TrEMBL record:
Residues 5-209 form the Porphobilinogen deaminase N-terminal domain. It is an enzyme of class 2 (transferase). It comes from the Bacteria. Residues 222-291 form the Porphobilinogen deaminase C-terminal domain. GO terms for biological process: protoporphyrinogen IX biosynthetic process. Its EC number is 2.5.1.61. Its cofactor is dipyrromethane. This is Porphobilinogen deaminase. The gene is hemC. It catalyses: 4 porphobilinogen + H2O = hydroxymethylbilane + 4 NH4(+). The keyword Transferase applies. Monomer. PANTHER family: PORPHOBILINOGEN DEAMINASE (PTHR11557:SF0).
Amino acid sequence: MSSKIRIGTRDSELATWQAKQVQSKLKEFGFEAELFFVKSEGDLDLTTPLTEMGGKGVFTKALDDALLENRIDIAVHSFKDLPTENPLPLTVSAVMEREDPRDALVAPKGVDFLEDESSKAIIATSSNRRKAQWLHRYPNHEITNIRGNVNTRLRKVNENGWNGAIFAAAGLKRIGLDNNISVYLDWMVPAPAQGAMAVMIREEDQKMLEITSQLNHKETAICTGIERELLNEMEAGCSAPVGAFAEIVDGDVHLSAIALKIDGSLQYDIEVSAPVHTAKGLGREAGRKLLDMGASEIVADLRS
Ligand SMILES: NCc1[nH]cc(CCC(=O)O)c1CC(=O)O
């Protein structure tokens, strides 16, 4: 390569960290890259709840456009923010090794309220998946919306007097803010592909395909692929109250998934496994089963 590879990223601290991670991995393989910052609709409008913004692709469109218009060669995304259907001539050429997939609670005033059955705590999140799972476990609590990047949300939870806010542990860890975590929510099923980063390129760009496929982390790609299959099978977008997490243990893929009514009053869950070499389709199968169990009504509810 004569010129530097152009990496496009959103300009939040987390997105920048992630893009730099790709930049330094590329360097290990002998390729120089530079960062280009692209603003997205999701970043500019911080007042509209995400669930009302047309959901799909609010964070990805600006980077998609930059790729399609050949202003950048690579876009780095949090994989969980990418819609499972992509009609554009763009493709994910690598999935980077997954960081901690868990959700975590930041509770500035402490976590004693979690023990008190009758507490009317206020928890901030704008994720339907987090809201539904939280209310299922803590029906007395109230959920309030919170928008903004990780730094903004941390500031808001410290200023607003809420009992807590829910974050992806990965996001906080990456930018060195995980000291704010009060408790890891091991019981909560994460979003499909949470904690993983995706490298996106133009489909026809053979050169970038060759270069970036070296960054692919096979186990992460397999697991997140299965989680996203499930989301796709359920025809649920990233704003759906659906969680899925797959991991490989001793050669087997284990998938846990959950679908809930947004108010937490109803929950369907499933656990399935298969040997890694036959695991393709496991997510689809589990998604289908969840729909058959009754989750189809929840998803249909959301689409109408
Ligand atoms: N929806 C925003 C978003 N997209 C990716 C992350 C964190 C990093 C990750 O999950 O990979 C976050 C923040 C959060 O959920 O708290």
